């Protein structure tokens, strides 16, 4: 037993738990924060911006010992170009006006090296009187390097896209220059009766391929024009349903060659839209052409027009080969093709052009497909009341 005149030792906490420490007072907490901040620098300044205390990771971050820096203006940490602009004084003025000033900028170490610092300066007041500043700083040079690397990569990607567009622009020009004389020569041969029965089939193949190449070059030229920001719209008001029927009539002969059943369904009353008539023709023609291309002989194609709230909706549905699920997220990207070797002369431009033209009208396009062999449905929505009505 413990003698009655001796105090019993404290009972240790159960389960090895530590006894709770006495809460630290705010002044002591500030000192401990300064002492135990491995990567945050604290500089205390007087009202003129002269450093009066140098705490935390300040010495390690900037290379100045406290004795070297105390008594110097905070300006010595700023790069020459920022000092020339008066930014150190401006930072203090903002802090006094708004109580705090935040910035991310290059600062100078003692050895002259530049470091990217994120900083926050707080104006200190005592009984309403401004008595000084505290600036809290952290080195974010690695983050800045990552940002610059990303910016350089984005610029490189932009330059690559610009170079690609320039290349395709030249390609379109050269191919069109070659197709012109070829088409003219084929037409002259046919007009003068130089195509014999024996040459009728190969001559027909030549004519078909010339038409196909011209169509491809036209689509590619539009994509390049959109990428260069040169795509222009000439909007007028017209009946979308009537135009849908006209477009269907144009492709009907192509569909008949594959024994497709094409159903055109439009409202019995006009669907007035304000859009570029020619561009709308391109949109619908490309979707119909794709449906015909990828629907086996004897299949069905539906071209529908309707109105949903404030949009005119065009739907092209088919019983074709469908789209692989992995391609759905990128189906409208340039040059996307599931089987390029079975593309029947295309190279993945049509749907990209459709997307660009629809977006240029302030609309949007999407696709639905339940998997390979289940056909597909493309939906185009065009605003009924665009902000720039003709």
Strand order of the largest sheet: 2-1-5-4-3
End-to-end separation in angstroms reads 103 Å
Number of helices: 10
Q: What is the CA-based Rg, rounded?
A: 36 Å
Strand content: 15-25%
What composes the largest sheet? 5 strands, antiparallel
Q: Element order, helices and strands? A: HEEHHHHEEEHHEHEEHEEHEE
Mean pLDDT: 82
Number of strands: 12
The percent of residues in helical segments reads: 40-55%
Secondary-structure class: alpha+beta
* Gross morphology: elongated
Query: Unreliable segments (pLDDT under 50, ≥5 consecutive)?
Result: 1-7
Fold and architecture overview:
- This protein has 390 residues and is α+β, with helices and mostly antiparallel strands.
- The chain has helices spanning 26-35, 58-62, 66-69, 80-84, 87-98, 141-191, 197-227, 240-257, 277-293, 350-360, and strands at residues 40-45, 51-56, 100-108, 114-126, 129-139, 235-239, 261-265, 272-276, 300-308, 311-318, 364-368, 376-383.
- The longest helix has 51 residues, at 141-191.
- The strands form three sheets. The protein has a five-stranded antiparallel β-sheet, with helices on both faces. A five-stranded mixed β-sheet has the order 7-9-10-12-11, with helices on one face.
- It contains ten helices and twelve strands.
SSE order and pairing:
Elements: H1 26-35, E1 40-45, E2 51-56, H2 58-62, H3 66-69, H4 80-84, H5 87-98, E3 100-108, E4 114-126, E5 129-139, H6 141-191, H7 197-227, E6 235-239, H8 240-257, E7 261-265, E8 272-276, H9 277-293, E9 300-308, E10 311-318, H10 350-360, E11 364-368, E12 376-383
Parallel strand pairs: 7-9
Antiparallel strand pairs: 1-2, 1-5, 3-4, 4-5, 6-8, 9-10, 10-12, 11-12
Helix pairs in contact: 6-7, 7-10, 8-9, 9-10
């Amino acid at each position: 037993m413990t003698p009655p005149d001796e105090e019993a030792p404290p009972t240790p906490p159960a389960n090895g738990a530590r006894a709770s420490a006495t809460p630290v007072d705010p002044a002591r907490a500030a000192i401990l924060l300064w002492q135990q901040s491995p990567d945050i620098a604290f500089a205390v300044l007087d009202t003129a911006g002269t450093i009066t205390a140098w705490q935390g990771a300040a010495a390690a971050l900037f290379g100045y010992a406290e004795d070297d820096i105390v008594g110097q203006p905070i300006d010595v940490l700023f790069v020459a170009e920022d000092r020339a602009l008066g930014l150190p004084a401006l930072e203090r003025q903002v802090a006094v006006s708004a109580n705090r000033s935040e910035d991310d900028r290059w600062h100078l170490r003692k050895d002259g090296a530049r470091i990217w610092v994120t900083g926050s300066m707080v104006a200190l007041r005592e009984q309403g009187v401004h008595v000084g500043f505290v600036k809290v700083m952290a080195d974010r040079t690695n983050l800045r390097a990552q940002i610059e690397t990303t910016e350089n990569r984005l610029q490189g990607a932009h330059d690559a896209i610009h170079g690609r567009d320039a290349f395709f622009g030249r390609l379109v020009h050269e191919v069109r220059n070659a197709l012109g004389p070829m088409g003219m020569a084929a037409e002259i041969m046919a007009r003068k009766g130089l195509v014999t029965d024996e040459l009728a089939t190969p001559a027909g193949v030549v004519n078909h391929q010339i038409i196909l190449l011209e169509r491809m070059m036209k689509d590619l030229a539009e994509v390049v024009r959109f990428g260069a920001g040169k795509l222009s719209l000439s909007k007028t008001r017209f009946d979308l349903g009537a135009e849908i029927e006209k477009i269907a009539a144009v492709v009907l002969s192509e569909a008949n060659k594959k024994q497709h059943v094409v159903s055109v369904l439009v409202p019995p009353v006009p669907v007035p839209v304000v859009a570029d008539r020619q561009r709308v023709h391109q949109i619908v023609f490309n979707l119909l052409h794709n449906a015909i291309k990828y629907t086996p002989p004897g299949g069905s194609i539906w071209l529908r027009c309707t109105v949903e709230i404030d949009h005119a909706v065009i739907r092209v549905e088919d019983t074709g080969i469908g789209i692989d699920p992995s391609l759905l997220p990128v189906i409208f990207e340039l040059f996307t093709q599931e089987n390029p070797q079975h593309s029947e002369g295309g190279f993945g431009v049509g749907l990209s052009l459709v997307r660009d033209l629809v977006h240029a009208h302030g609309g949007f396009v999407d696709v639905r497909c339940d998997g390979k062999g289940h056909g597909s449905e493309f939906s185009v929505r065009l605003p009924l009341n665009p902000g720039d009505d003709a």
